[in-house]
Amino acid sequence: SSSTRPEEAESINMQVTKKLLPSQMEPGLRKYQDSIKENANCLMRENEAE
Questions:
Q1: Cα separations (Å) of 22 from 16, 40, 44, 46?
Q2: CA gap 18, 30 in Å, rounded
Q3: Which stretches of sequence are listed as region Disordered (predicted)?
Q4: What is the phi/psi pair of residue 6, to 5°?
């Protein structure tokens, strides 16, 4: 349902994230963010090339 507000979803994400051990979470999170940045950079380069 669409009754979940963004801030509710955010707090749920935080609760789930906190259940993971920080030592496990951090590297995965960094890798995830880095891959998102890489994808964004690739998309931007492709757009500029056109």
A1: 12, 26, 32, 36
A2: 16
A3: 1-27
A4: -50, -40
Instruction: Give the CA distances from residue 50 to residues 14, 39, 43, in Å, rounded to whole numbers and listed in that order.
Output: 39, 17, 11
Question: What angle (nearest 5°) sits at the alpha carbon of residue 32, between those of residues 14 and 15?
Answer: 10
Burial of 16 (0-12, 13-18, 19+ CB in 10 A): exposed
42 is written with which tokens?
């690739």
Q: Tell me, yes or no, if the pTM score tops 0.70.
A: no
Total Cβ atoms within 10 A of residue 36: 10
| pLDDT tens profile 2-50 | 676 888 888 877 777 777 666 666 777 778 888 888 888 888 888 888 7
